[in-house]
Design goal:
173 residues; Rossmann fold; 5 helices; globular
Length: 173
């Protein structure tokens, strides 16, 4: 999970921005990030599972559940050579549970603790420089990160909404 400075956008605006940022994609890799045993922090895993099923017949799209160390997948990313990388993770934004936002890497608070071994802003910078890919971070505001708890209802609804939105945009191509 990451912590950020606030700047919320509407779902319609999010769809529009995603459509723009994903336009012209050649190969997309989607990384579901988080701890699958910690309540809403597992939302990246949940989203990856849904997207993997929904996009299984879509060529040039790879969906991976990468846990709390997405940097361990940089070798695979280099081999896949994506034009776009989409990171999905829980993000503390000070919003109501389930809020979805496109997060600019510079908005991630560098001084805040992270549940990842490498902060996402560093991973994003690395992927942009190393792969030349466009990297997007999609965050969902968690309600609970308690070990062993289930994903909250609000976050579950947002996972479904985000998955549908991404599938729709990707399949338009």
């Amino acid at each position: 999970m990451v912590a950020l400075q606030k700047e919320q956008i509407s779902t319609e605006a999010l769809a529009s921005v995603l459509e723009e940022k994903l336009s012209g994609w050649e190969r997309i890799v989607i990384l579901g990030i988080g701890n699958e045993f910690s309540g809403d922090d597992s939302l990246g895993f949940q989203a990856a599972r849904k997207l993997k099923r929904a996009l299984s017949n879509t060529s040039r799209v790879e969906v991976l559940a990468v846990g709390t160390a997405p940097e361990n997948f940089t070798g695979l990313l280099r081999k896949l050579s994506p034009s776009h990388v989409v990171l999905i993770d829980a993000a503390e934004m000070g919003e109501i549970a389930g809020t979805i936002e496109l997060i600019e890497p510079h908005r991630i608070e560098k001084r805040m603790p992270s549940t990842h071994t490498m902060p996402l802003y560093m991973l994003t910078e690395y992927l942009e420089q190393e792969l030349g890919a466009i990297v997007l971070i999609l965050g969902i505001q968690p309600e609970s990160l308690s070990l062993g708890s289930a994903v909250s209802d609000e976050v579950e609804v947002s996972i479904d909404k985000l998955a549908r939105l991404l599938v729709e945009i990707i399949n338009r191509r």
